Amino acid sequence: MGRILGIDLGTTNSVMSIMEKNGPVIVPNSLGERVTPSVVGFTKSGEILVGKKAKRAAIMNVGRTVFSIKRHMGTNYRVRIEGKEYTPQEISAMILQKMKQDAEDFYGEEINQAVICCPAYFTDAQRQATKDAGEIAGLKVRRIIDEPTSSALAYGIDKSADQVILVFDFGGGTFDVSIIEVVSGVFQVLAIQGNTHLGGDDFDKRIVEFLVEEFKKSHGVDLSEDPIAMQRLKEAGEEAKIELSEVKESHILVEAITMTEKGPLSLDYTLTRQKLESLVENLVEQTRAPVLQAIEDAALSLDKIDTILLVGGTTRMPAVQRLVKEITKKEPRRDISPDEVVSLGGAVQTLALAPIEGDLEDTLAARYGKEKPVIIHMTPFSLGVGLEHDQFSVIIERNSTYPTEAKDIFTTTHDFQEAISFPIYEGEENIASENTFLDLLRIEGITPAPRGVPRVEVTFRLNPDRILEARAEDLATGVEKKITIAATDARLSESEKQRMVKESKDRVSRSLRERIQENRIEESQSVLSRSEEVLANYAGHPMESTLRKKTEDLRSLMQQGGGDDRKLGETIDDVNRLITIIETAAG
Length: 587
Ligand code: AMP
What we know:
By secondary structure, the chain is of the alpha+beta class. Helix content is about 35%, strand content about 25%.
């Protein structure tokens, strides 16, 4: 049995880990970093960049860089680049494929299995899409596991005492809170609440809006119409936000952010933590109600919660930590990195899936005990079918544990009716169509009979990945119809999936590390020649000497064979940025 990757496929960043003898460890990517930005960029020359490289090149690839694709998983959204369309599954697969390749390079062996974590509120369609993305990337997806459960697993498994854990997960794009009970190694999710449209990105937007206003006040120039200036502002704003989690003041300097007739203008502003906190105060406050609701849903009093776990980058903000402490009256744990905990739990989950071999078994038994972790999840929504008069008939109740199976019997409403359509919904409304439509289960060939006589049994089965399989059976004849649910149009057909798997394989014919090196050298060469052109065409430009100096730095790094990868990357970025500024100013 080969290694199994535990992957946190995040909205903003992704992280991977593997179970080692001494417990789960983070696997670094090809740049030696523990976190890979979930960003995919398409260059003009048709190359696909993933991770930090794509993020850094975003200024050069405005309109060809994909951020936060996770928000679109399980929908019909398409990314359109240079006339070609990509599904969210394909874009996510590019991220997963890079992670797989980096892990293979790190361990020097093929790795083709993974546990992928997804938000607890993800619907069937979103889970199926996540699974498809893994498969397109060449990974057998052994399990889709909820992120909060995964976090608790990373933390809770080597603690012998039973406990109740509150997981407060505030990332780049989403916020959710879960309450999990751990009893004798059994993890049970008691409640989930959250807001899928609240995250650190919203904080960045607030900072950018504020800086745009400040710039307008001091210089009378509106930066909001200029996509490159906005992208640079977003990066600088996010950097300041992150810095302000550690220090009280952050100096934001974006040089030559715009050109005027009098020359370039820079944005120069000192943002204080206090100002930042006032800008985002009501966003932080929006996390309060879901926490209180989750505690109420779990039917617990505050003092029954033993442990507060912080997950996601935004929980590093002091204002967020203060609020959590104020609500829960407890000090959150700080011993596991909020960026890594989900992925580490994914690696722990692999224990429950695979026969563990040899000495790994003994070491793990010493650490975790002989019992493998058992996880019991609960569905956050009811699942059922729409009947006559749009009535909603629930088959699997909200907060049921899964895997589970439930059935109900229905009949016809007209004489000699030969087919019945069951629209499947998830939600809590009595009026079926006010819930979320998932798919249509239609059974044909029912033996003709007066209405009310045929007996059609509908069975819902929720598998361990919380993907729903629905079956309808005419009990008189045994005729049946079975479907696996994913929002109909968003679901990939088997042939589409196979095509994507093939395209994805073609992309990794060379090792990613080789490609990164080659790309870096190619990129430097092309940037140097563009810079020569720009220096020749725009002699006398106010930024000319700055560009000349940075170009010389780049040339000397190249003469040393590229030097330090990080330094080279930063110098390429600097030269690129200056070229863009000079060219943009010249129209
Ligand atoms: P995640 O989705 O968990 O990767 O979280 C990413 C979000 O966390 C982004 O919005 C980051 O800007 C934010 N973030 C990361 N580190 C910090 C920090 N030290 N302080 C505040 N926000 C942070």
